[in-house]
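Minutes, methods subgroup
Present: GH (chair), OT, SY

1. OT presented the first of two proteins processed in the latest run. Sequence and structure tokens recorded below as shown on screen.
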Amino acid sequence: MKKLNLNPIEKKTFYLLLLGTFFAGFIMSVGNTQDIIAKKALNAETWQLAVLTMIWPVSNLFSIWWGKLIERADSLRKFFIFAAFFGRLTLLFIFYINNVNQFILILFLMHSANSIIIPATNKIYQSNIRKEIRGQIFGITMSLRTLTLLVLSYFIGRLLDWNENLFRVTIAVSAICGFINCMILSSIKIEKKDTGKPKERYNLLTPLIRTVEILRTNKPFAHFQRNFTFYGMGFIMMQPALPIYLVDKLQLSYTHNFVGKIILANIGLLLLSPLLGKKHDSFHPFKFTSMAFGGLIVLPVSILISSLFGPSTTAVAIVFVGFFLFSIAMAGINMAWNMSSIHFAGNDDSSMYQSVHVTITALRGVLAPLLSLFLINTFGVMTVFAVAIGFLALASIFSYLDYRAVQAGKLVVRSK
């Protein structure tokens, strides 16, 4: 900590972020276990798994409206409190859930809160943490959140193997912890920077106009969104296929599902987030994401190879190695997904940039699961992983070409 040379504001912000992050790990566990719970405990059908995959990105559709309000705000307290009550405590309705469709509804409310929490948290980092150490601070908090997630996932898996009906209790506990996380974040005061510009009038069209303006004038950011769309198509389309392959083809228990899909797939975030945060502070986002996107290809490749061995120990071992290597690349993706908008925002308020970034996930969040569902029903589940390889490769290649264009001065921000 001494090496970071935190000033009093940074130190207080960091400790509160760290405390909140611990509780955020519980909510993160819900998002990571939801598909396996839906498949095994609630007998979800393939189309319901596709819908389940869609709810997180689709719930982000309105993030630009929240982002514009956050951009104008001098305090973030009311946003976090709203998210705490309507996006976290609503998970307590889990005790009244009897089928997958009801499960999807409360998860939609939970994920919708992220369209508020993500840009608001992004604004805290931009306002209260220096650029030189921002990635490292985020990396440390991410490691703690991932550690919480991994420990929880293992014990939740063991608990559900004993009695799968206890998934309601685990989600209820996560609801309370998510509430605590939001209340902690609401206590962080941001260092408001006076731009000298009067606040413009706000109406429902204002965020749309601002979004178009950002994408039109900030071409590097627009290209960044295009590349993330390629990545998102590849990543999201695998999500409905994974529980089908892991549960039906490999016949894994709750514990083994969570060990592979959550623990091994996130171990990179635990071990490498601080280091990658430091690299992200010094690398251009295009160079950084080009390597990360390319690294993700190892997971669908390992699944395709494992399918040659049937439901065997060898197949499981190959998939688990794939999840582990995937986690290394995913640590980089997570860093870029959360922090790169600040880079592209420059001197502008990053909350609106991050909201644009979050909202665009809704577009691929609709298309990718539908494409996955079509491929599963028409050609079989393995086709999904083959097509995902193509999308991830495109994301990596275009990011590298964009990095070269930036270095050559051919991809720049236009004057407004």
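2. SY then presented the second protein from the same run.
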Amino acid sequence: MDPLPRNVAVERRLTSRALAAWQSAEDGRIAAALTPFFDHSIVVRDPAGRAIIDSVGGPVSARFGLVAGLPLLRDPGLSDLSDELVAACELVALQPMPIPFEAAVNDPMGAQILVRGLALPLPEGDDPAALVQVVLSWREVLSKSAARRLRAELASALAEIRQQQPAPLPGPFPRREGAGAFQLGGSNGVFQRTKKGD
């Protein structure tokens, strides 16, 4: 399968593409079919029991602080994302089928992260859901207070830049004092016409 493009439109369709790959995979090839989605996934072993994070993609780990080898727990720091992850894994363990979900995470810096997830069962041996691969896509939006703060900071920065601008440079052709428009005729600047014979 081709590497996934990184544009926003494709990120929104990430879970749909993962579902299509899972549905079209042959028996015994499901994990391989989902390999292109690993960077945006966590894989949970024993989802209805110890729920250990078996592996986690780099971007997911960096954004949400999930670490391989630790149990997947309900974490108030992730707001409702951790609840949704745990619930999705438990549902997949009860009935091995794709479980979609959405969640929101409040970032300490004032952003809100909207997350779309899809939990997919991965069979191992006789267990149809020995592992669950959760594919995640997300986007960040500013909260109203963060947007107001950002606008105020931008206005302040622009005001400082305007104050620091140097004086305009003189033109390449200096003007003499009192030099004005081109004058024709006498000192009063009026073009004087004379009639023939005057």
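Chair's summary of item 2: The helical segments are 8-12, 14-24, 30-33, 58-64, 80-94, 144-164.
Next meeting: continue with the remaining queue.
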